[in-house]
Write a structure and sequence with these properties.
Elements lengths: L2 E7 L3 E8 L5 E8 L5 E2 L2 H11 L6 E8 L5 E3 L9 E2 L7 H10 L3 H8 L8 H11 L1 H6 L2 E3 L1 H9 L7 E3 H4 L5 E2 L4 E2 L1 H8 L7 E3 L6 E2 L5 E2 L3 E2 H9 L5 E6 L3 E5 L13 E4 L5 E7 L3 H10 L7 H6 L8 E3 L16 E3 L8 H25 L6 E5 L6 H11 L3 E3 L5 H15 L12 E3 L6 H17 L1 H4 L13
Parallel strand pairs: 1-5, 5-14, 5-15, 9-12, 16-22, 22-23
Antiparallel strand pairs: 1-2, 2-3, 4-7, 6-8, 10-11, 13-14, 16-17, 17-19, 18-19, 20-21, 23-24
Helix pairs in contact: 2-4, 4-8, 9-14, 10-12, 12-13, 13-15
Length: 477
Amino acid sequence: MTLVAGVDCSTQSTKVIVCEAETGAVVREGRASHPDRTEVDPQVWWDAWRTASAGLLDGVEALAVGGQQHGMVLVDDAGKPVRDALLWNDNRSAPQAEDLLAEVGGPQAWAELAGLVPVASFTVTKLRWVAQHEPETADRATGVLLPHDWLTHQLRVGGGAPTTDRGDASGTGYWSGHTESYLPGMLERAFGRNLEVPRVAGPREPVGETAAGIVLAPGTGDNMAAALGLGLQPGDVAVSLGTSGTVFAVADRPATDPSGIVAGFADATGQFLPLVCTLNAARVLGAAAQMAGAELSDLDDLALSVDDTEGLVLLPFLDGERTPPLPDATGLVHGLTRRNATPAHLARAAVEGMLCGLADAVDALQASGITPRRIVLIGGAARSTAVQQIASSLFGLPLVVPPPAEYVAIGAARQAAWTLAGDETPPAWPLGGDVLEPDAAAASAARRVRERYRAVLDSAGPLLSPRSGTAVADPGE
């Protein structure tokens, strides 16, 4: 049995999964936590890797790292970090994002050049922040890496320059999916001078070996690894319901969305991965359960005990929102009457509100050129029966609910197996899971739910944006 390993170096933890290379069957796994911060010493990732992988790698022949996108690791001539890494969820560079947006000709120019519109999560804005606020630190830096680049390089022995892949590079703001190349002028504009950047390896290219002789695959960003772990095919749209929500699909050409809602990422196979991110997903259900005086485990029964909210609408922007771009918004309950003022109606309104926002994200992908044929529903909230049943109606497409798994780490392992085999395409690992077909009888009710949500959203502008701004959507983890 040939074994491969995949690593998910996420914001919160490092997970290591060992899989059988031919089938993808998981045979071993480990985990170690990270501190809950928006900037972190990269040594934390190395320590977590050593803890999570301890005793797991016997017999492993190839390995790949999937890492949180957009993090900035500035290094000196010796490859040592000159400061803690700024992570995707560090928002201090929001003013720098606005400056760069204005300097380079506005959203259309950015979308055509880099495939995305600058927001605080992207690496290019963090470079500008360091250059402006920490000039002495900036003077010591000679190169910039992403988290997965840095960890892969630490694993590599025998020298060689750092490497990355096109998927993770596409989330920096200084690499273009349109030209498949870096944008050195953008780096110089952001940082004041050019920096060394890692070589972009091919999707299945070996980039070195570990001290134990394990072949290193190029690795990729976490969303790209998740797409690989799910085995997304054209027409598949992944809807991930974690604390935040992400909606993404595989495409054969880069997206160009000047609104900034759709980020035109590349994927890990040579294609593209247009992606929309919402800030509020599973957290909405937890808040609704608290408001209803119920346990989260009771939310399914509550939400399914009524067929309709009878006019109750919940706009789920509890912590501001990225998509639509409402960074200062709060949640809003509309249409409250004595008849629908019940825990059950509130629970159903919360599920519908969360899913309507994600259905809007699917619509944005469709407007960018994606033709959705089915929804692949993953993440913690995807296990909810109420979420599954209501999503099937609201999306109006076949709904696949794969078994719970660490799909970022599995995708990295699949890339490792691909690199080891050297074939033209990745190995075919079965996904499995349940399939729910949309209920034709519920289609008209689902349309009314979405129309009601949209009407409330369109009419609530002043309440949702107490401080006007020009922020755009912030695609992230």
